[in-house]
Amino acid sequence: MNTPPSRTALSVNVNKVALVRNTRHLGIPSVLRAAELCLAAGAHGITVHPRPDARHIRTDDVHALAALMQAWPEREYNIEGNPFQNLMDFVRQVRPTQCTFVPDSEEQFTSDHGWNLAQDGERLRPLIAEARALGVRVSLFMDPDASAMAAARDLGADRVELYTEPYAAAFGRPQGASVLQAFAQASRAGAAAGLGVNAGHDLNRDNLTAFLAACPDVQEVSIGHALVADALELGYEATVKAYLACIADAAGR
To answer: Is there a catalytic annotation at residue 63?
Structure first.
């Protein structure tokens, strides 16, 4: 990823663009066009989370985006999902830059917790090894538990993605500082264990800078819902640049 070493990369999750498109049969808004505009505006990567029920991103989207990304060789393609459901098929076929293992059930509304490695670690180990053998970086979706970071590394993961909804929910509230501290500790522990650290879920223009200022080890944020909502008002270019400015502000603190 062509990112200054002191800056966090921004990967845009385009699931919600697909969700709107799927309400009609007109092919609009275009997932490919959204990705292209975000990349042109400076986004460092594109993320998708294709669920088994194809409620938003569909199989053909995953492959079409993979083809699009060939024109942006310095940017990254991240595919999220549960490796015990449909994710590994995409990893084998597409070989994205990164795959993020997420412990979602098939009927789950949205991602809402990280892996329990004591319970699932040994099942994950061979799939992590398979993805890495294909040349795909592996990130594990994790709660901000500093004590679990070494275990993630021991399983062979390259990175963790910290599940940030608890931070977003506490932002601006009395408990916000203590919640943010837990994320800062987990981020430091991940880096100390030799992991790259990503973060995502409910990050937005209001809370992103404070999060990254407290967690400078975070290498990538994946943002979808808030970014697409902002783009409805501001347009993709202005929105991506606004999020990049939040990242720059954090690096300057």
So the answer is: no
